[in-house]
Amino acid sequence: GWWTLGEADFRGLKPGISTQAEVLKLMGTPIDRSSFRRQGEEVWDYRYLDGTMQMLAWVFFDAQGRYKYFVGQPDPARYSPLDG
């Protein structure tokens, strides 16, 4: 599950080398997948823990399905302020 993932798991991926199949095996099924054909990218969403903070990560792949990079941030579903 997502609670077993950490930032180190994402940092271990190798840009231009790691494949979608390898990411799927290491990270499990993403919570969402988006394709951006004009940009030649596919993005997979994952949740993970940074200590006790719940995080959201976007994992970017090129058009050939090779890992490019990831972006992580505190999960806005968990840490966004409530509307007044």
Give the topology, please:
Layout: H1 7-11, H2 20-27, E1 32-36, E2 41-50, E3 53-62, E4 67-74, H3 76-79
Antiparallel strand pairs: 1-2, 2-3, 3-4
Number of strands: 4
Distance from first to last alpha carbon: 34 Å
Structural class: alpha+beta
Number of helices: 3
Radius of gyration: 13 Å
Poorly predicted parts: none
- Molecular shape: globular
Explain what you see.
This protein is an alpha+beta fold and 84 residues long. It has 3 helices and 4 strands. 20% of the residues lie in helices and 39% in strands. Strands 1-2-3-4 form a 4-stranded antiparallel β-sheet. The N and C termini lie far apart (34 Å). The model has no long low-confidence stretch (mean pLDDT 91).
Keywords summarizing the entry:
84 residues; alpha+beta; four-stranded antiparallel β-sheet; globular
Brief write-up:
The protein has helices at residues 7-11, 20-27, 76-79, and strands spanning 32-36, 41-50, 53-62, 67-74. With 84 residues, the protein is of the alpha+beta class. The longest helix is centred in the first third of the chain and has 8 residues, at 20-27.
